[in-house]
């Protein structure tokens, strides 16, 4: 295995190309990148979460860690307080590792890293620290899908489960709603890299309790008036990985304040008919493991309180001393 400093060096923040934006911001010098973040590691919440897919949340809950900032910036984002407005507290790599251990001690089924990859050097280092200190639950990378395949590969030795979105098949729609017309191509390359990393580790693995220990779950959020693009997304996912992945088709789209003000299709929820069209298409394609949501799930209650719960606390006491992931 390569040394940590060879895989994701601290210098990755000097002219940042960790995400597909390749903005080359001097984040290590305090300049915010397209993600809205400098190299200062920031976390908004660390707590048990019970509303992920059943193989991720189970009955014990998933140990979610929400990172501040986001490279994608969707207009309909529900987590805009942290993704766009930057809420969060600065933490060290050692403190991040300690949070992981605290979540496991609280009974978490896994450690669920939410939008972490713009902090990849520190995230990878923290997982290694936590594992050195006894972390034994799987690590989940919960991502928008807008990832460089090279970053996915660099994290593959510390990620067990990839919980990834595949948002758009249409470059035009991706450009309109996320300012990323390259999203479909980028997400496809990233998904292939995720599937390959799971394959190389031995393939999908589920525990006796039904929890996912290793694998890929592809999420797709159905958007109002875009069931056709949703079906095209499922076509693409099937073409790329077929039943190597679990599929989660969501109807929980809830208009945020900006979408409500703007009006148009994004100002309303998804209809039962739109959702049914997409679910039926998933069945027709042949997906064997499909997660879906029952009616009435549209609610802002799916968005946790971003109040720095679980972020403050003592740091891990025995640091690792290698490369960018070493304690600061």
Secondary structure layout:
Elements: H1 4-7, E1 42-49, H2 54-57, E2 62-67, H3 80-83, E3 89-90, H4 93-105, E4 111-114, H5 120-132, E5 139-143, H6 149-155, E6 161-165, H7 171-178, H8 183-201, E7 205-206, E8 212-221, H9 227-241, E9 246-250, H10 257-262, H11 272-285, E10 290-292
Parallel strand pairs: 2-4, 4-5, 5-6, 6-8, 8-9, 9-10
Antiparallel strand pairs: 1-2, 1-3, 7-8
- Computed structural class: alpha/beta
The radius of gyration is: 19 Å
Q: In whole angstroms, how far apart are the ends?
A: 23 Å
Q: Helical segment tally?
A: 11
- Shape category: globular
Order of helices and strands: HEHEHEHEHEHEHHEEHEHHE
| pLDDT averaged residue by residue | 91
Number of strands: 10
State the helical fraction: 25-40%
Low-confidence stretches: 1-5, 318-328
Please give a structural write-up.
It contains eleven helices and ten strands. The two termini are 23 Å apart. It is of the alpha/beta class and 328 residues long. Helix 4 packs across helix 5, helix 8 (183-201) runs parallel beside helix 9 (227-241) and helix 9 runs parallel beside helix 11 (272-285).
Please summarize what this structure is.
With 328 residues, the chain is an alpha/beta fold.
């Amino acid at each position: 295995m390569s040394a940590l400093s060879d895989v994701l060096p601290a210098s990755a923040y000097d002219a940042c190309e960790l995400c597909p934006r390749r903005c080359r911001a001097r984040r290590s010098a305090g300049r915010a990148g397209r993600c809205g973040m400098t190299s200062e590691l920031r976390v908004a919440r660390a707590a048990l979460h019970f509303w992920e897919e059943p193989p991720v949340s189970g009955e014990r809950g998933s140990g979610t860690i929400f990172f501040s900032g986001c490279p994608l910036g969707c207009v309909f984002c529900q987590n805009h307080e942290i993704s766009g407005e930057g809420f969060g507290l600065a933490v060290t790599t050692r403190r991040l590792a300690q949070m992981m251990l605290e979540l496991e001690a609280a009974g978490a089924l896994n450690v669920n890293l939410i939008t972490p990859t713009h902090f990849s050097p520190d995230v990878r280092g923290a997982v290694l620290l936590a594992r050195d200190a006894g972390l034994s639950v799987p690590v989940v990378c919960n991502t928008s899908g807008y990832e460089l395949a090279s970053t996915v590969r660099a994290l593959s030795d510390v990620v067990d489960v990839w919980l990834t979105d595949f948002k758009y098949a249409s470059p035009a729609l991706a450009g309109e709603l996320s300012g990323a017309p390259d999203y479909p191509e980028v997400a496809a390359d990233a998904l292939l890299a995720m599937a390959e990393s799971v394959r190389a580790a031995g393939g999908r693995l589920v525990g006796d309790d039904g929890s996912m220990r290793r694998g890929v779950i592809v999420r797709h959020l159905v958007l109002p008036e875009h069931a056709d693009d949703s079906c095209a997304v499922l076509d693409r996912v099937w073409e790329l990985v077929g039943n190597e992945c679990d599929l989660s088709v969501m109807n929980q789209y809830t208009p945020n304040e900006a979408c409500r003000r703007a009006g148009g299709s994004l100002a309303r929820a998804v209809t039962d008919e739109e959702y049914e069209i997409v679910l039926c298409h998933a069945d027709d394609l042949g997906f064997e493991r499909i997660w879906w949501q029952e009616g009435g799930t549209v609610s802002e209650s799916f968005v946790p309180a971003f109040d720095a719960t679980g972020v403050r606390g003592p740091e891990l006491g025995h640091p690792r001393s290698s490369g960018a992931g070493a304690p600061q």
